[in-house]
């Protein structure tokens, strides 16, 4: 088992970065940490890294988000392509702006109801049980309503967008390779997104509808307009 600890950090940082100072001081000053693709199974105690702003842990084998309660300064968290099945233990990350969780095993977008600064949420391509779609907890959506600008939900078997209408600050929606079929369902939410500038629906059944792009642009107040 490979656990993310200060010992693991010590093995992976270059000596030139810390030869002039005590390693504990180095950890306390550290703002960026990249331990992607290190076969890490679990997040251990790295609370000395209290000034961490950006944490890269993608392409590992992490199954649980944990031990990040100290990390109130983190703004960017990269956890894509792990084994995470539940979004949890993030309530202390009050300054979190960008959260990357693509390629995990998450079935419900939840656990974000205490976070009101998130601008980007990337949760594409979850390994879902056969026939199931990605679900959204209303409390988390309400919390994200005023801050979320970029949402990537591609490749998650999603067949309707109505519950996302609360995301009033949305400017870019990536929803490619889903199961969106009905133009009426889409038209019903487009006018709820007054700041929407970009939308990717490639690979959805709706793309085969006659003049679907034209209908979307006509319905939206902002898409296709300079």
Please, could you describe this protein's structure?
With 226 residues, the protein is of the alpha/beta class. The protein has a domain at 3-157: Ribonuclease Inhibitor (Leucine-rich repeat, LRR (right-handed beta-alpha superhelix)), CATH 3.80.10. Helices cover 16% and strands 14% of the residues. It is built from five helices and twelve strands. The protein has helices at residues 6-12, 23-29, 138-144, 183-190, 212-219, and strands at residues 3-4, 32-34, 42-43, 54-56, 76-78, 98-100, 108-109, 120-122, 135-136, 150-152, 172-174, 198-200. The protein has an eight-stranded parallel beta sheet with strand order 2-4-5-6-8-10-11-12, with no helix packed on it. The chain has a two-stranded parallel sheet with strand order 1-3. A two-stranded parallel sheet has the order 7-9. Helix 4 links the parallel strand 11 and strand 12 (198-200). The model has no long low-confidence stretch (mean pLDDT 93).
């Amino acid at each position: 088992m490979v656990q993310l600890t200060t010992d693991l950090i010590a093995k992976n940082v270059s000596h030139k970065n810390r030869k002039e100072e005590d390693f504990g001081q180095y950890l306390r000053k550290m703002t960026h940490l990249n331990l992607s693709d290190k076969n890490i199974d679990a997040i251990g105690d790295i609370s000395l890294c209290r000034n961490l702003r950006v944490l890269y842990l993608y392409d590992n084998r992490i199954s649980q988000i944990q031990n990040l309660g100290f990390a109130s300064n983190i703004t960017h968290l990269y956890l894509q392509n792990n084994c995470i099945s539940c979004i949890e233990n993030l309530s202390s990350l009050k300054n979190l702006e960008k959260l990357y969780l693509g390629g995990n095993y998450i079935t419900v977008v939840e656990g974000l109801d205490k976070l009101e600064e998130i601008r980007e949420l990337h949760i594409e391509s979850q390994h879902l049980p056969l026939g199931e779609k990605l679900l959204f907890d209303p409390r988390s959506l309400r919390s994200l309503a005023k801050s979320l600008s970029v949402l990537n939900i591609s490749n998650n078997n999603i067949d309707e967008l109505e519950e996302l209408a609360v995301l009033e600050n949305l400017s870019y929606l990536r929803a490619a390779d889903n199961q969106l079929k009905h133009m009426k369902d889409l038209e019903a939410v487009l006018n709820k997104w007054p700041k929407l500038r970009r939308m990717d629906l490639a690979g959805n059944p709706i793309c085969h509808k006659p003049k679907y792009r034209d209908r979307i642009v006509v319905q939206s107040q902002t898409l296709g307009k300079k």
